Amino acid sequence: MSAATTRSRTPDRLCAEAVDLAREAAEEAAYPGVVGEHVSAISEGDRVVTHFFECKEPGYRGWRWAVTVARASRAKFVTLSETVLLPGTDALLAPEWVPWSERLRPGDMGPGDLLPTEADDLRLEPGFTGEDTPPPNSAVSEEMAERVSVSGELAELVEAEDAEITGGPPSSLPAAPLRGSIVSVAEELGMRRARVLSRYGLHVAADRWEDSFGAKTPMAQAAPAACVSCGFLVRLGGSLGQAFGVCANEFGPADGHVVSLSYGCGGHSEAAVMPKPPVPSQPVVDEFQVDPMPLRPAADSGSVSVGAGAAEDLGHS
């Protein structure tokens, strides 16, 4: 039977008249003066009534104090059952809670913040694979260790000496990677990363970078050339280097960002090469030739001719 069918539509008279008892309970649970007028009373069941009072406390607009009172069968006294603060129809409520992993956005991390990753993160995969157990014929295998193990007395002596030197038995010390294992080789080569990017992680990163600095962006559509031929492009290593690089043009819009090779901007190194300014030639001074300067105009052409006397004065014969 549902709860709606067990409720009585007509509130119990004694429970409905216990407004003062309900107010005292609400004022005891709340601060004095924040319990307002009596709003309503509803029947929760046989001889069970809930009284609602306004809440005048700042920050709780639309909330109501709900006090439930009850009366036992054939009893003449009403007792208190529960006091709680409930939101009304127009109450100011907090937004629905969202996990931090869904609220996190790029740029939210600050200095000192830690961003944990799940153990089964699809973007990551183990950095090295293979069994760490050496083959049976290896010098560090368990079978070879049993063959060359010392006697019990000698082993106890070595254990005691090691304990004096290290401050504890070797079994309590941090275990180092087995020599010859894939873990030890990876650590020796500087490649011991617990996890690396998976194919899914590579594709997700490539799609994100393509959306930010890819061929379909307005800047690339208006660019005179692509980044693949730009001198400011720094190529990436690995498989991502086939499609992406880093922009090193301090005046470009993508300086320091990963850009697609098909991206482009107006700062392309070969898009508009400025020509060198022209250099004027040096003036030529000829001091070994005298140019004639006619002083009188000729009779037929109107030019100036030089007379005999003037020619003598100028040094001509």
Element string (H = helix, E = strand):
HHHEEEEHEHHHEHHEEEH
**Strand adjacency order, main sheet:** 1-2-3-4
- End-to-end gap: 146 Å
Q: Please indicate the percent range of residues in DSSP E strands (runs of 2 or more).
A: 15-25%
C-alpha-based Rg, rounded: 47 Å
Q: Tell me, briefly, the overall form.
A: elongated
Q: Major beta sheet, specifics?
A: 4 strands, antiparallel
List the helices and strands and how they pair.
Blueprint: H1 3-6, H2 13-16, H3 19-29, E1 35-45, E2 48-55, E3 63-70, E4 79-87, H4 100-103, E5 124-126, H5 142-147, H6 152-166, H7 182-188, E6 195-197, H8 199-212, H9 218-221, E7 233-235, E8 244-247, E9 258-260, H10 308-313
Antiparallel strand pairs: 1-2, 2-3, 3-4, 5-6, 7-8, 8-9
Notes on the protein architecture:
It comes from Streptomyces mesophilus. Residues 274-317 are annotated as: Disordered. This is DUF3027 domain-containing protein. InterPro entries: DUF3027. With 317 residues, this protein is of the alpha+beta class. Helix content is 24%, strand content 16%. It is built from ten helices and nine strands. It has helices at 3-6, 13-16, 19-29, 100-103, 142-147, 152-166, 182-188, 199-212, 218-221, 308-313, and strands at 35-45, 48-55, 63-70, 79-87, 124-126, 195-197, 233-235, 244-247, 258-260. A four-stranded antiparallel sheet has the order 1-2-3-4, covered by helices on one side. The longest helix has 15 residues, at 152-166. The protein is elongated, with a radius of gyration of 47 Å.
